[in-house]
Amino acid sequence: MSTNPNIKVIGSLTARFNRDPLGLGRTSGQRGAEIIAGIRAELMRTPETIALSRLGGRLTARTMMALEREDMFNYIPARFEIMTDMALKHTPFDSASTLVEIAAGFSPRALHLARRIPEANVLEIDLPDVIAEKRKRLEKNPQIRIPANLTWRAADLSQQMLSEVLNHKLVDMILAEEMLLYFPLEDCQHILQQISLSLRRGAYLVTSIGFRPGIQQAHKAARFFNRQAGNFLGVVDQPEEARQLFESSGYVDVQVERISALATKMNLAEVPADVELMVLARRP
C-alpha cells in the first residue's frame, strides 16, 4: 500500500494530455466527462443535461450504449438521483452550510442542490478548462437559471491539496461521483483521508466506487469507455471490501449500497448491473 501522505486528490492519469481520436477532449478525464454527459442527455433529457452535453459526446454515448442491452445504462441517471437524494438527506439546511462537489465534470447536480437548498452555499471544484466550458454551456441556454448560491472554483487538484483550495475551511458535505474509479485502491485510502480533513466533524462524504461484478456484466461498453477515459482502477469485489476501505481511512457509519437496490427503493428505472457501489460515510 502506498505510504505517500501528500498524494493529491485528482492526480491520476485522467488529467494527462494524450491522443484524442474522437475529438472529445485532450485528456482521458475530459473525454470520460463528455461521454457521461452524453449518456445523461440521452436518458434524462432535461434542459440542463442537454445544455451540458456536446453532439460528439451524445453520438459517442449512443455508440457505446448500442453495445449492451437497452437498460444497462440506467445506472447513470440512477446514480445521479441517488447521490442527490443522499446529499439532501444528510446536509444541514441552514445559511452556514457549505456543500462541495469535486470533479463533477458536466453533471448538473450542483445546480439542483443549489436550487433545493437556497440557504446553503454550493461550491463546485474542477479543472479550469472544465469550469470555463461548463459555465459557457449553461450561460448559452436562456432556459437555465444559475442560482446565486452556486459558485465554481477552478483548481488542479493534482497540484493542490483540497484543503488548500478550500482555504482550510471545513465544509458540511463533499460529493465525489466516480472519482475513486480511476485510482488504484492503495491510493484511494490517502485520497479519502485528504477529503476527510476538509469535512466538519459529523459531516458526510457521498461518493461511489467501482464494483467488479457489475463492470464484468457491462464488459463490452466498459472496454469501449476505458479506451477513451482510462482504466477502472478503484474497484472492489465485495461491498464489505469497500466498507473496510472507508473505515480504515477514518470514517464511521459507513453505508455501502448497491445502486440497483436503491433505485428500486426510489422507484427509479431498473438497474440491471451495479457498475459502482454508492458509499455514504461520516467523519467522526
The biggest beta sheet, please? 8 strands, mixed
Helical/strand content category: alpha/beta
Order of helices and strands: HHHHEHEHEHEHEHHEHEHE
The helicity comes to 40-55%
Low-confidence stretches: 1-7, 13-17
Number of beta-strand segments = 8
Average pLDDT taken over every residue: 91
What portion of the residues fall into strands of 2 or more residues? Answer: 15-25%
CATH class of the domain at 73-218 and 231-282: Alpha Beta
CATH superfamily of the domain at 73-218 and 231-282: Vaccinia Virus protein VP39
Q: Based on CA inertia axes, which overall geometry fits?
A: globular
The number of distinct helices, counting runs of at least 4 residues, comes to 12
Quickly give the CATH architecture of the domain at 73-218 and 231-282: 3-Layer(aba) Sandwich
CATH topology value of the domain at 73-218 and 231-282: Rossmann fold
Question: Over the alpha carbons, how many angstroms does the gyration radius reach?
Answer: 17 Å
State the distance separating the first and last CA atoms.
24 Å
Observed structural traits:
eight-stranded mixed β-sheet, alpha/beta, Rossmann fold, disordered N terminus, 284 residues
